[in-house]
Structures are given as C-alpha cells and as structure tokens.
Amino acid sequence: MIELHNVSLSYQHDTPALNNVTLNIAKGDFALITGVSGAGKSTLLKLIYAALRPTSGQVMVDGLNITGIPVSQIPRLRRKIGVVFQDFKLLPGRTVLDNVALTLEVLGWGKNDINRKVYHILKQVGLEHKIKSTPLRLSGGEQQRVAMARALVNDPRIILADEPTGNLDEASKEKVLEILKEANIRGSTVVIATHDRRLMGDWCKRLIVLDKGAIVENTDVS
Amino acid sequence: MSHEKKKKRPKLAREGFLGRLHYFIERALLNIRQNVLVNLITVGTISLAFLILSLFLLIYVNLERVTETWSERVQVTVYFDRELTSGEVASFSSKIRAAGGVSGITYVSREEAMRRFAQRLKGQEKLLQDVTPETLPSSLEIRLKRHMREGEAIAGFVARLKSMPGIGEVQYGEEWVKRFSDFMVVVRFAGLLLGGFLVLAVVFIVANTIKLTIYSRKDELELMGLVGATRFFIKVPFLIEGVLQGIVGAGLALLLILGAYSLFLHNADFLLSFSQAAAGLVFLPLSHCAFLLAGGAMLGFLGSLTSLKRFITL
Q1: Mutating which of A45, A61, A74 best tests the B interface, going by the most B Cβ atoms within 10 A?
Q2: Is the C-alpha dihedral spanning A55, A58, A62, A66 positive or negative?
Q3: The domain containing residue A105 runs over which residues?
Q4: In what order do the strands lie in the sheet with A18-25?
Q5: Residue A202 above 80 pLDDT?
Q6: What is the percent of chain A with per-residue pLDDT over 90, rounded to a whole number?
Q7: Burial classification of residue B120, based on how many CB atoms lie within 10 Å of its CB (0-12 exposed, 13-18 middle, 19 or more buried)
Q8: The domain at B75-172 falls in which architecture?
Q9: pLDDT digits over B141-178, tens only?
Q10: pLDDT value of residue B276
Q11: Chain B residues within an 8 Å CB radius of A74
Q12: Cα–Cα distance between A101 and A113 in angstroms, integer?
C-alpha cells in the first residue's frame, strides 16, 4: 500500500530529514513509526500525502508512483488518505459538523448524506452530542477526536496520524487508539507517527523506528 | 471488504455542474455569514474607495455637461450678399449637410437679420436710422455636432464649406473656438490624470483589502487542500465572495452618493454652473453606475484571484 524506495529528503542546506529510507507498509497494516523529535516521522508522513517531495528516491502509494505527481493529481491522492494532524487543524469558527463535513463536501456529497454520515462518525468517536459546538469549546481530547472523525469520515484507504495521542490523558489516549484500531479492522491501512513507544500494543502489526532520518528498526510484529 | 463495498458510493448530490454551482454559491454566502466582521470591513473599505471615485466621476460628468453647453455657442455662419430663394436654401443645406457633422441649419433672411439687429440695439434706435434690411447680409447658421465643435474638426469643416461653389464668406469665431479647444484639452488631461490616479488607488486599496481577508483565512485554504479539494474547488467560493464584496461595496458607494446628491447636490447650482442651461448638478448616468458596479465586481474577482494564488499552497 505504501512503498518508499531509497528516499532521501533535505530541507535546503540542513542535514537530511530522511536518509535513504526504504520501507513497505502492506494493505491492512497497522504501523507505528517511532523516534525522538526530529527523527523524520512527520516528514515521512508528509511524503505519503504529497505535502513534500523527496529529494531522491521513489514513493508509491496505493499502486501510484507519487514521486513526481503533478499538482493537479494531488487532490485525487489525498481523497484516499485521511490525515490526523499533530495540531488538529480544525477551523475554529466552524462547528464540529462543518469541520468534519469538509472532507465530504470536497467529494461532492449532498447535504443530507453529509449530515447522516457525519452524525454516524461522530457517534463512533463519542462526540455526537457536540455536533453543533465549535472546536474552541472542546477539550484537547475532544478536538483530537473531531480531527480523527474528519480523517475517517470518507472511509479512506490509508489513515496517517501524526502524534495522535500527544498531550492527551490516558483515557483519551485509549479512546483515540480504539478508534484507529476499529478503522484498521474495517480495512484502512493505519500509520501512526509518535515519539511514545509505549503506545506499542498487540494490535500493532509493524514497528518502524527512525533515528536522524534513517530507519534503525523495521519489524513485522503481527 | 469495506473498500469493495465503497464502489457503490452514495449518490453525490453536488457532483454535477449544477450541484457544484449550488454548493459554491451556498458556501460563498455561508462564508460571508461566518465572517461577518471581516466582510463588513472589506465592503466598507471598498465602498469608501469607490465613493471617492464616484464623486470624481460626478464632478467630471457635470463639468463635461457645462462645457457641452458652452460649446453649443460654436456655430458656423455662411454669409450671402443677396436673399436666397427657398430652393437655394434647400440646395445649400443639403450640400452643407453632406459635409458631415451638422446638427442643424437655420436660414436667416435679411428681414430676420434686421429684426435681430434692432433687438440687440434696443434703446439706441437712433443708430439704426440709416440701416435697411438690404444693407445686411442674409446667412445660413450651421450648428455642429459635439465632436465637430473643436479645433481642427471645425477648421476642416469650414475649409470644405469654402470650397463649395456659391459660398464666399464663412465665420465661426475662430479665436473663441481655439481657446475653448485649449481649455478642453486641459480639462481632459487633468481628468485623465486624476481619474487614472484614483482608479490606481482604488485598485490598490481593494486588492489589498481582499488580500487581508483571504490571509485571515489561509488556514482554511490550506486545510481544504489537505482534505483533497482541487484548486478550482477552493477558489470558486472565494471568487464569488470577492465579486459580491466588490458589487456591494461599489453599490453602497453609489447609494451614499445618491443620498448626498438627493439631499444637497441636486440644487447646488452655484457649483460648476456658468450659464442658466447648466444650472444644478446631474447625477451619474446609468451607464456610469453600471460601469462602477462592473468595476467593483471585476476588482473583487481579480483581487481574490491574485491573493488566492499566493495563499493556496496546493
């Protein structure tokens, strides 16, 4: 599902953020990418949803080589990928419903279908009662779950989550992981980037450890 | 697997052309509602900029009207040392009309000339003692269309007249026409210069105001791209919003100036009026109002388009 072949990426004159990375995440995998801050975890995720381009090497996503993907093709790629951003990226002036609906509006869904689907996904993440609230009135854990709902609402083939449990209490962490596990069971390939290796559980199928932009461990743990 | 099932996706009510159009308009209106304050500030700024431009136009239009009245004094007179028969008048008239740019021709007979002369010398009738109609020439007074009343146009017309057989003396107040033409050159140049500066200022103000409103929503633009929206999909609601802001801003400026006109300016005949005919100010013609509204829409559109190019990172 996700393949990287000898991928390197440098930000201008800095030392490379990724250095000759090769990995293969199969369809239906639940992969955990860990490493200290600055190890290249977020960079790797950004490569997968084409927010960054590799300096060298090839990136394949869902059978498509996206290394030199034209800008006009990027939206089509991103519609297959649900991304949970580290900073949530929720629109503060819009309701939870509007925030989650954005993913479906882009696809051209009608209002009624959107309302039904958003309610359904919010129920899954336990936030259906907050549908009319704005993100500013939600706790950090709740905001994180709204961000997850937005990423999951169109049943994407791939879910990328960047530090999805950062700054959350234990109960919220559990809830977030539970949601991702369920998405994985429903067929989505899930990739989590986190500095917290303790998240590793029996549900995890692949562990990738990054250090200074290079893979130091890539284990199939299923 | 769920992905195989997904091929039977729900009916996408807003996928076709009309569906998309409906979405874009709805989204633009929703955006305005959700960002009322920013929109109010934008519309207010656009409106102020257009108010200045509209005021300038109002003054310019009225100045043009005054000069139009002045230029009506320009007329060409062809003198004859004998009375013309009605057949001759008709023949000369049709020849003169054929020279182009003529709006009207009046034949002034010797009797009529005498009557006018007497009227002009009212109170000094003694001066008329030895004057008989036979001593005065008959004439054809030729009124010209607006574009023929200045400089070279009128000189060319007179030259054509003089070349016609049977036409001798022609007068048209050469000195006055020259001064009037020079004055019009100055008025037009100043109008063009000032108008040009004003238009530039309005473009600058509107474009930058819109840029600020779009900048304040750059997170939204970024997010749309991240969830798979195409550039087109992101842009259109913002463009509609920009066009609406431009039209409403320009419309508001016109309403304000119409209000000021109705309250104070319509009878301000002390302004710009140098003759009875030009007393009072006229409001902007409908074509100018339409031009301002279209200008507002265009600026809103282009301002949004250029700003969006900068802020869409996709």
Answers
A1: A74
A2: positive
A3: 89-151
A4: A18-25, A2-9, A56-61, A64-65
A5: no
A6: 55
A7: exposed
A8: 2-Layer Sandwich (3.30)
A9: 999 888 888 778 888 888 888 888 888 788 887 787 78
A10: 46
A11: 225, 314
A12: 10
| A125 burial level (CB within 10 Å; 0-12, 13-18, 19+) | buried
Domain segments of chain B: what residues? 20-69+182-311, 75-172
Domain count, chain A: 2
Q: Would an 8 Å CB–CB cutoff place A112 in contact with chain B? A: yes
What does the alpha-carbon distance between residue A180 and residue B179 come to, in Å, rounded to a whole number? 86
Between CA B32 and CA B99 the distance in angstroms is 59
Among candidates B14, B220, B226 on the partner chain, residue whose Cβ is nearest the Cβ of A78? B226
Q: How confident is the model at residue B272 (pLDDT cuts 50, 70, 90)?
A: low
Q: Is B33 on the interface with A (CB under 8 A)?
A: no
Strand pairing report for B102-108 and B169-171: unpaired
In a shared domain, residues A108 and A160? no
- Look at residue B268 in the predicted model and tell me its pLDDT: 62
Model confidence at B270: pLDDT above 60:
no
Residue A96 has pLDDT above 80, yes or no: yes
* Cross-strand pairs, A214: A211
